[in-house]
Amino acid sequence: MQAMPKVLILDRSKSVRNTLRERLEFEGFSTETVEDPSAASVLCGKIPFDVILSDTGCEIPATGVPFIVLSSEASIASAVEAVRNGAQDYLTKPIDMNRLLQSIRRTIDRAEGASEAAPAGPAPVVRRSRRARTAEACAIIGSSPAIGRVRALIDKVAPCEARVLVTGENGTGKELVAHWLHAKSARAAAPFVEVNCAAIPSELIESELFGHEKGAFTSAVKQRRGKFEQADGGTLFMDEIGDMSLSAQAKVLRALQEHKISRVGSDRDIEVDVRVIAATNKDLREEIRRGNFREDLYHRIGVVVIRVPALRDRASDIPQLVEHFLHAIAAEYGAPEKTIDNKALRLLEEMPWTGNIRELRNVVERLVILGGERISAEDIREYCC
Prior knowledge:
The protein is α/β, with parallel strands linked by helices and 385 residues long. The protein has 15 helices and 16 strands. α14 (356-370) crosses α15 (377-384).
């Protein structure tokens, strides 16, 4: 599993900071929030952030981290000034979250591309790109009966071609289950392609999934292959499929039934050989009852359903997960690995973990940064409660 992209939110408004943090962590980012540039500068010295989101009223610290300006002022002059000062993008409040997510990902990809294209030879030590950091082992950590059942299901289902629906709360590790289903299948050497159905605007989801022809719509300046074509011969992981529009659901159903897709703006069918693994945090049967999800699509994608348990239902795995994260974060930062005492572990086991494993990892990272050399119960109370 690659390290989560790290975003620093610098804004004077607590409500803005909390709203952005909640949404970005839901999308799989690791976040920290501050309200003034001096605190931002201190944090940037400790954490290798990928991008900073900054309110226009805050002076950006000279850290070398790419930044995006979030402004209450919809002014061309202000936007031009921000870009001249080094901003990667300029977005106006209230923030369009889909546009913000696209901007963050584009900024990170641009920075990684620049890092990979840098000339070889001696150079000053610089901030590492996310891909260059040590990745965490792609393993399902834990020995509880609940997670054991998930492993057993993966072993049984992965070798066959059955479509799988992975369910569970946000942050439980549904994507990791999908990766293992692919890795243990006969398609392991073929592409594993991911698409987050909740992060793409409804008007763009069909183009994202099926591709488009040049001129199909205003911004279609060239032909584009969609996710189904990219995954041909391999696995397509459709995350948060419960957030897909009904019109897109109908086209996905056709693709699954006929093994054919057609690009937006084309009437030509393209045959595709794709195993679909879908995931959702929603109760799809309830969504069907409300008219938000097609029952026929549900039966197509849910040949086998794997329910990933919430962290509170496998609390006995927390010590193993904590040890894993302590090791991974130390490797990521290039720092000595910290230890944790038993009282601190017991406190962590008793916490509610509404954000599940994603929240636990963020907490461990916070403790590594702020806690003592041996993380104690006092550190837990001070920084996590």
